[in-house]
Design goal:
Layout (H helix, E strand, L loop, with lengths): L12 E8 L9 H9 L6 H9 L3 E8 L2 E9 L2
Antiparallel strand pairs: 1-3, 2-3
Length: 77
């Protein structure tokens, strides 16, 4: 995956991000939730799920001990 500031013919989605104090999102699958909680890089699984499904939505991810980050996904048509 490549993050770029401008849309191209290969773009999958537009991603936005902002800090929030909302609760972070957990995975519904117990094995994936264990993985998400154990490996810091896997905390992006809820966002990656939206990208893989090409589904619009928002995902709240763990970011810092005192805040979270809200990621917005808008698939490209």
């Amino acid at each position: 995956m490549v993050l770029a500031p401008h849309r191209s013919a290969a773009s999958l989605a537009r991603i936005s991000a902002e800090l929030t104090d909302l609760d972070y999102e957990r995975m519904t699958d117990p094995a994936l939730e264990t993985l998400r909680g154990a490996i810091p890089a896997a905390r992006s699984l809820p966002m990656l799920r939206l990208l893989a499904l090409r589904q619009a939505g928002r995902s709240i991810l763990e970011y810092l001990d005192v805040s979270r980050i809200e990621i917005g996904i808008e698939p490209c048509a």
